[in-house]
């Protein structure tokens, strides 16, 4: 932590490398101390008091600490000091310190580069080739040089001296994708063909050679993703449906407000009738007040009084035995209604566990569905944009792709160098797609054998959706449970009376 962000009057808890620590000002020793953030009594987070102390020091206006509480490291400062940055103590330099909690690990993002302007502007951002060369690499880090005279220095494990971009990249999504393939497969998964990726490649090389390919969290963290919430929480109809649905939430609040208002109004009318003297108002007015009060009270109960009759025994579906196996990835799936898509921006969706991006290709005048990860560093293409030439541009480094998935531009590649953008690894996987019934459908398989699947098998056609005599309303919603639970729910008419009680209007069956 920078000292300027600390308060001597109160301790501050932080999580570093999976360790919960607390930093506080010891006025007796006149220095900042870093402790394990667990009280030895009942393991409560410490706010004051003394437990096992960890070695800490202040350098460059930053509190540094050693990650081990073993007594042998009590005087570690006399043997090994934190990396020194002379510019931070030089008054001729202007610098700014801040700290931020970010929802992903330290791998990869610290070594990204800013894009500088080039002589031939090829896109809006003006990306250009960057020439970086490795000078030295060992267990203590590495040094690279960027022509003409810029130097990068990585001091393991957490100090990087160089130039960083201001815009944050979507690395929490990248981290999930890298966890899927494993840290040892980074080189096979990411396509880094230009010298602009030298820092990233050097960092991965250092990590693999000297740190086993991943961070050593000890016993504090196993690298697994957060657990799925319990079934009761996922299926709770109010928190999973009403709260997240603006229409249902507004209707629910409106019905509640109307019901309470009618009850209050009926009680107020009864009170007025009872308090008024017979000579103050006529008998007709008194009877009118009583009738309105009764109607208001009955009306408040009307919202919950209607319940259609249902059969007592559900019909059992016929059971069939077959040796045929259903292939989930050999069918068309609806992705989004066209009315909910914006031709100016890509949209990411998850279907069958596949992260896909749908976008409008104005050159081919068609909706396209791609794998939602750039082949360069796995950044989601759905967070990119459609450039002025109608290409899908990655938000991370500006790589551009055409409607067939081919890479049209790598801004960092030299114009007189090899055409790395034409390499097969620079292409994005494309899913077959079509528009039918006002819906974008896609085939969840990018194998070349399915490129012309539309000529052999079309999506299921719903004639009512194209019939102007029918009233159609389309919408999409993300819900926090699986396909099988949703289909069971939609096929079960008996649940609506109870699960949607007082939430949605249900008309009785015609008699």
Overall strand count: 21
Question: Class of the largest domain in CATH?
Answer: Mainly Beta
At CATH level 2, the architecture of the largest domain is: 3-layer Sandwich
Percentage beta strand = 15-25%
**Tally of individual domains:** 4
Number of helical segments?
9
What integer is the average pLDDT? 76
The H-level CATH homologous superfamily of the largest domain, spelled out, is Rieske [2Fe-2S] iron-sulphur domain
Terminal Cα span: 73 Å
Task: Please give the largest β-sheet.
Answer: 4 strands, antiparallel
Strand order of the largest sheet: 1-2-3-4
Write down the oligomeric state. Answer: single chain
Write structural notes for this entry.
The protein is built from nine helices and 21 strands. By secondary structure, the chain is α+β, with helices and mostly antiparallel strands. It has four domains: 3-89, Rieske [2Fe-2S] iron-sulphur domain (Rieske Iron-sulfur Protein); 109-211, no CATH class; 229-317 and 481-511, no CATH class; 333-475, 3-layer Sandwich (Rieske Iron-sulfur Protein). The strands form six sheets. Strands 1-2-3-4 form a four-stranded antiparallel β-sheet, with no helix packed on it. A four-stranded antiparallel β-sheet has the order 7-8-9-10, with helices on one face. Helix 6 (246-275) packs antiparallel against helix 7. It is flat.
